[in-house]
Amino acid sequence: MVRRRTLVTLAALVLGASVTACAARYKPALAPGCHKTDSLVLMAQSVPSAQQVPCIASLPAGWTFEDLDIRRGTSSFSLDSDRAGHRAVEVRLFPSCRVAGATEIASDEVGTRRFERVESVVGEYRGTRYYVFDGGCVTYRFNFSRQGLAFVNEVSLAIGFISRQEIAQIANRKL
Amino acid sequence: MVISWLVVFVTDLRPYADDLDSAILRWVADLRSGALTRLMRRAQWLGADRTIVVLQLAVVAVALAFRRFRHVIVLAACSLFGVWMTSVVQVVVARPRPSAVEILGRWNGFSHPSRPVVGLSLTVVAAIYVLVPKGRWRIARAPDSADRRRGISPVNWVCLAVILLLCFAEVYLGVSHPTDVVLGGIMGVAIPLIAFRVLAPAEVFPITYRRQRTAHVDVGGRRGAAIQRAVGEQLGLEAESVEPFALEGSWGSTPVLIRLADPDRPTLFGKIYTATHLRSDRWYKLGRTLLYGRLEDEATFPTVRRLVEYEDYLLRVMWAAGLPVARTYGFLEITPEREYVIVNEFLTGAREIGDVEVDEAVIDDALRVVRGLWDAGLAHRDIKPANILVRDKKVFLVDVAFGEVRPSPWRQAVDLANMMVVLSLSSDPDVVYERARLLFSDDELAEAFAAARGVTLPNQSRARLRQDERDVLGRLRALAPPRPPIRIQHWSLRRIGLSVGVIAGAAVALFAFVNAVRSLQLW
Question: B420 by DSSP, 3-state: which?
């Protein structure tokens, strides 16, 4: 009995360690890069009406992918910054969103309307950016631990959009 | 399961698996109708986070009510391992939801393995192991047992139907691929199946709804056969049967009668000690240390072997001192360092002192036994009705595992007080006191009742004192010369440290439990 228990415990530990090692290695691969498909397909599936899906175009120096949460009706991912802080920006995809109180400005993404709402610029920077398009809406929730227009610009460069058709083509599947 | 993952992902067979899944999904989607879709959406509730958490908490509540702490720990470990394993595999495999059909149900995260199916299967299988007794309702395979039976019990059928319903709902609604639910089901069943069979096997930790002490183990099946074999190999005697005996009077071991095949040989009495008994002894002594400090020699035994060796040694010492204890035959090793049986002569015809008439002859003999313990420099330390047997007006002491060689005078005084309480419960305190004065001085009797406080009285004696309409202890104290009570509260750094540790541990556990319930993030 003792031998059986030892064997089972060892097997569980070896299996656990291997799978955890795999998971740690695979975590960066979960990042919804604009050319990676698994996460993007799932994000597109979470909001079937959305014609565009946010993705990570390229991460500037000091920025890292933090986590991804995808469920029916919404998806989100967040980025860390070594200067702007943990979860400095959270990007979320919705079927629609309310933009009352936000100011519309010229959009830097094709086929979208852009709105901005600044909540705090004292000591830290907090605000929300909205991109509204056919069948969906994407919000960038900024939560920088200190002020800096440079951070906002870096986020603008880091995050892009990919159309549903492009995802379907890359993944070679119907969406 | 692991092989199928490796085959699919290492050999790049994933597109073939996707094609097969898509074909099955389309075939199932052809069955869709308004009424069936509504039904399947309801069925999806079986795998919802809240359902799983509520089910698991209900199982834990029942298990705690029946003091199945080991099962609760195994269930919690399975649950945490299942959550962790599912999350990790989902990240590694990163499989999107089905795209061959329209998704009609709720979902969360990647598709493989199906989280709701893992959660429900794990909970249902664990519930069977924690709640359902082996036998008619749960047919379990017992390889070495005479009543070897195979098959699926009614409970297993019901559970299988519930899991299959959720699997079908997930596929019907297009939420999961068929391979997601199949591998999720295998994973959810395998984790508790292996864990409970290895860490809480039914042969050792049987599920029963009869009232029984937690220390008692099942003496049938493989264990019974192993004891019979050990009697033959280690004592050179042929055992015919091993059966439980007087379980209600035993707290720390499982007493058994060993009947020998030779009719001329006497029946033997055995007590099974396992690692569980050792842990019970440790918890008991920890509780006493927390409540009272270290009364005297509350050190725990490091192994079951040491516990049995000690009891065997004390039986031999008492026997050599001419005290009336059962003759020991030594002990049997069933599983090295884990399970032992101490074997004594069976005192045929002897009955517990509470069940016989206690007259002056019995009182005198019992008091002489205490005097004998004092003179031999010994203390029994657990004198209570269950440990005093009477045969033909002669008193015998049993269960000497708590005994001590060269005890303090206080400990010996407690033995005297406990014996006088037991005798008075079955007779008259005045008579007992008068007879005691023939063997003990007034000063010794005064010390005995100054020492007899709370914890020094065994639970069984305290319970009988409460049931007795007379104030037996009060009367004995009144008869003894006045003497201030002896303090039994002893504070030490160890007691303070243990108390702080236990309170902190309980607070952390409570915090973790409340957090888990509030966030409902278990599944």
Answer: helix
Using an 8 Å CB-CB cutoff, list chain B residues near A29: 94
Give just the sign of the alpha carbon dihedral A170, B1, B6, B8: negative
ipTM for this prediction: 0.79
Local structure of residue B274 (DSSP, 8 states): E
Nearest-angstrom CA–CA distance, B191 and B182: 14
Q: A142: distance to nearest CA of chain B, Å?
A: 24
Cβ of A23 and B91 within 8 Å? yes
Residues B451, B421: contact at Cβ < 8 Å?
no
Grouping H, G, I as helix, E, B as strand and the rest as coil, residue B421 is helix
> Max CA-CA distance within chain A?
71
Query: What is the C-alpha end-to-end distance of chain B, expressed in Å?
Result: 21
Going by their DSSP bridges, the two strands B339-345 and B268-274 should be labelled as antiparallel
Give the strands of the sheet with B328-335, arranged side by side: B239-244, B254-260, B268-274, B339-345, B328-335
Q: Is the pTM for the entire model greater than 0.90? A: no
Task: Return per-residue pLDDT of chain A as tens, 175 residues.
Answer: 455 556 666 666 666 666 555 555 556 667 898 887 788 999 999 999 999 999 999 999 999 998 889 999 999 999 999 998 999 999 999 999 999 889 999 998 888 999 999 988 888 889 999 999 999 999 999 999 887 778 888 999 999 999 999 988 877 766 6
Chain B residue closest in CA terms to A67: B91
